[in-house]
Amino acid sequence: MSTRTADLPPLREPGPGLVVLDPTRAALLTELDTLFTGLAEQLHAPAVIGPPLLPAEGLAKLDYFRNFPHLGVAAARYQGDTLDALAAGQDPAEQDVHPTGYLLPSATCYGLLLSLAGAEVGDGQRVTAIGRCFRNEDHYDGLRRLWGFHMREVLYLGTPDGVRDHLARSKEFVLDLAAALGIALDYQPANDPFYDRTGSRAKLMALDPVKYEFLAADGTAIASVNRHRNFFGDRLGITSDGQAAHSGCTAFGAERWVHAAILTHGSAGAALDRVREVRDARR
């Protein structure tokens, strides 16, 4: 016997920054991601599945903890005597946890980049993946800012010219997709949440922005294009014809697109209808 959508009880938030998407919003997210993958198809970026955890040692090589220590969510585990205490019914919140040396991803590209350490990519390589990402924010706000969310990325590694082409085509794709969906966007340099805003990378970003965001009508950043220069290639030994590879990526925040679509069309149902119209027109 099938369960109808109308028979489901109301879905409540399990905690701050945690949401369960009801069937209509879940379908909206799935259909939107199908549209996002159109960019990967245009750019011939094969799909991969990234890892659920990232080694702290690898992230340290990428200056993650210098720049974003406040966003990291560490993975820990119970072990030893704690297991007996839990089995005896004691409060899990009062038990000691032990570090694993791993973090939950805060962006999809980190796992992809770490997996390519030491690789030679010739004149260019692209991949795409969608991952569940996690960020320790100072506040949470509906679908605009979550503990955990889905991020689709299309990543390029290769030459400086290849990065420029990748990001230019990505920008055109995002603006065209948003227009088709009726979502008005603003395009501007990002203001990344660096822990130390007086640090060298934050200063460099201010002088030469390497990340641009696409903002919905209420200011929510729903997508971005990111130019990494040769930073990841140099740190991870990824080469393009023997030189440190340049890289760039395009990111779509799936839940934020759901938010923007609902904001635009007034309801999840109306937004889903529009997304499906665009999907069918692009087949």
From TrEMBL:
Organism field: Kitasatospora cineracea
Family matches, as SUPFAM superfamilies: Class II aaRS and biotin synthetases (SSF55681)
Domain of life: Bacteria
Aminoacyl-transfer RNA synthetases class-II family profile domain ranges (all copies): 126-283
Name by which UniProt lists this protein: Aminoacyl-transfer RNA synthetases class-II family profile domain-containing protein
